[in-house]
């Protein structure tokens, strides 16, 4: 791969490990004793790591977890550790937003390999990835309503977009748990695999073959376009196509497909 031999470009990590091979960075959430619950420091580290991923020449990311559970969500020990004002909670929520935005808009496809609990903030983390692969042990829930709190890591936007408002409200009001093929059918995950990590690796390897600019357009562009009024989205789509389709590497790929030399080739 083209990564520098050392991992000097990575920030110092306490809660995650990273292994790079063939252009794919494999990130592992590594706080299994607390079921990978997300403390404030963990969330900050996620933001820093994905900022570094954005600036790196990594071409795709697998996000997995150590232990039987992907992520138990917010570290519930934290809110009890001090007396937070509403404005403090709002600030913390905005930090979660920043970290998960860094994932969604890092420009590289992020494939998460799920198992066990994907709950609360864990589901918000998974929802900021581009492809979710579950296994038979995976279950999705939003227990915030039951805890007397509210989502703060982007679920109202990203999970609602995946499953729709009615299912989102049902999950939050009743604590409804989704798993298996039903979770796939409602849109919480795109794949149900015997081995979610193996499947996520396979998907990442495939996506890493795409041109980086195409992957940026797909992973960031589609989400932004979905927020726009249709007329503006169509204009922006055309603009993105103009930039993406005219990159020399795309011309080369198209020419190879057609069995011809690329325009601009000296021998064309
Ligand atoms: C935790 C957390 C946590 C476990 N914060 N420490 N999330 C939840 O409501 C999910 C809460 N957790 C669970 O339901 C269960 O722990 C699991 C189903 C994920 C796993 O069960 P299990 O039997 O394997 O583990 P456990 O015995 O419950 O927990 C093992 C340890 O992890 C234990 O600590 P220990 O020191 O006693 O060994 C637990 O206290 C700890 N642990 N989950 C802190 N979440 C931005 S807003 C987002 C809002 C939310 O995310 S709300 C949803 C919170």
What's the helix and strand layout?
Elements: E1 16-21, E2 24-29, H1 40-55, E3 60-65, H2 86-104, E4 110-113, E5 117-119, H3 121-127, E6 131-134, E7 139-141, H4 144-147, H5 155-163, H6 165-174, E8 178-179, H7 180-186, E9 191-192, H8 196-207, H9 212-226, H10 230-245, H11 248-258
Parallel strand pairs: 2-3, 3-4, 4-6, 5-7, 6-9
Antiparallel strand pairs: 1-2, 7-8
Helix pairs in contact: 1-2, 3-5, 5-6, 9-10
The chain binds 3-methylmercaptopropionate-CoA (MMPA-CoA) (1HE).
Residues 34-35, 37, 69, 72-77, 96, 117, 119-121, 143-144, 147, 151-153 line the site of 3-methylmercaptopropionate-CoA (MMPA-CoA).
Summarize the entry for a quick read.
With 268 residues, the chain is α/β, with parallel strands linked by helices.
Task: Note down, in words, how this protein is organized.
With 268 residues, the chain is of the alpha/beta class. It has eleven helices and nine strands. The protein has a six-stranded mixed beta sheet, sandwiched between helices. Strands 5-7-8 form a three-stranded mixed beta sheet. α2 links the parallel β3 and β4. α1 packs parallel to α2. The longest helix is centred in the middle third of the chain and has 19 residues. The protein is globular and about 65 Å long. The N terminus is likely disordered. 3-methylmercaptopropionate-CoA (MMPA-CoA) binds next to β5 and α4.
């Amino acid at each position: 791969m083209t990564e520098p031999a050392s991992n000097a470009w990575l920030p110092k990590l306490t809660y995650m490990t990273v292994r790079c091979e063939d252009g794919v960075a494999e990130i592992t959430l590594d706080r299994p004793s607390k079921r990978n619950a997300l403390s404030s420091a963990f969330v900050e580290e996620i933001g820093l790591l994905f900022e570094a991923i954005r600036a790196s020449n990594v071409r795709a990311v697998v996000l997995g977890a150590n232990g039987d559970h992907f992520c138990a969500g917010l570290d519930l020990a934290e809110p009890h550790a001090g007396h937070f004002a509403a404005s403090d909670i709002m600030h913390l929520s905005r930090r979660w937003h920043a970290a998960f935005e860094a994932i969604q808009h890092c420009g590289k496809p992020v494939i998460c390999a799920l198992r066990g609990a994907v709950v609360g903030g864990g589901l918000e983390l998974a929802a900021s990835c581009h492809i979710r692969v579950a296994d038979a042990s995976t279950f999705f829930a939003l227990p915030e309503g039951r805890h007397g709190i509210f989502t703060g890591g982007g679920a109202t936007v990203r999970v609602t977009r995946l499953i729709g408002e009615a299912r989102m409200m049902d999950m939050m009001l009743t604590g409804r748990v989704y798993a298996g093929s039903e979770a796939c059918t409602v849109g919480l995950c795109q794949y149900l695999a015997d081995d979610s990590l193996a499947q996520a690796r396979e998907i990442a390897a495939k996506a890493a073959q795409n041109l980086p600019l195409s992957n940026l357009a797909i992973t960031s562009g589609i989400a932004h376009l979905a927020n726009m009024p249709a007329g503006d989205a169509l204009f922006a789509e055309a603009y993105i196509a103009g930039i993406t389709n005219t990159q020399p590497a795309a011309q080369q790929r198209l020419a190879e497909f057609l069995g011809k030399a690329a325009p601009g080739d000296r021998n064309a």
